[in-house]
């Protein structure tokens, strides 16, 4: 019997009033796989992630995480399994809380034991030493803040990590560092990831498979290797590929 995909999305539709922003979006992600969603601004990428993460309760279609049917208002335990990292690490971290407080909060909500040990471990996992623990977000660089946001997501030991433009608010050199960190984390844990980016180079670095969105629809789904070879089947994909080559990260990402 084939194993169930970690995430399956079938005919997902979302409207905001009269605006129909997702149209029959379907894709599935295998256990431990990293799947990319690319597309220009407004194509609906974040909306897909917000629905998956349980942050957007208004949608129709069928979504399952393994054998669990995704609810419109998921139970608390769901939020331990599925965690999201947002684009802007400054907006996503509470400015008046120390890093310690930021990392302690989800552990307390989920009643997780040994918080001290876990906070120290979570910081270590993202390459930050104990000295960061009692600092405030404004005392950190953008890259360090994004590491904290990743640590907060990983502290709950989720099985699914959803990343919405995890590096686009960062300087190019720092982007590569954070992407390499995510790559290491992916190799160390059996995490299933969905990574949203408007930049194909970012997705190419992290994913084997990618869906290209345009106007709320998936216009092409392909593996990265054949995308590199053929340059994409759809004109739209070709344009996106050309645009992302112009702002390519590949020089800083090396041959990875
Ligand atoms: N809460 C909302 N209410 C009304 N319209 C919304 C809402 N959220 C998103 N939209 C609209 O849905 C469409 C898709 O938005 P979404 O944020 O998913 O795009 P995106 O692909 O993530 O874009 P970007 O690359 O700029 O982040 C856009 O036209 C947006 O204006
Ligand atoms: Mg977005």
How would you characterize the overall build of this protein?
By secondary structure, this protein is α/β, with parallel strands linked by helices. The chain has a single domain (7-250), classed as 3-Layer(aba) Sandwich (Rossmann fold). 38% of the residues lie in helices and 25% in strands. The protein has 10 helices and 10 strands. It has helices spanning 45-53, 76-81, 99-109, 115-125, 142-155, 172-188, 200-206, 224-230, 235-246, 250-253, and strands at residues 7-16, 19-29, 34-39, 60-65, 68-69, 82-85, 160-164, 192-197, 209-214, 217-223. The strands form 2 sheets. The chain has a 6-stranded mixed sheet, with helices on both faces. Helix 3 (99-109) crosses helix 4 (115-125), helix 3 packs parallel to helix 5 (142-155) and helix 5 (142-155) runs parallel beside helix 6 (172-188). The protein is globular and about 50 Å long. Bound molecules: adenosine-5'-triphosphate and magnesium ion (MG).
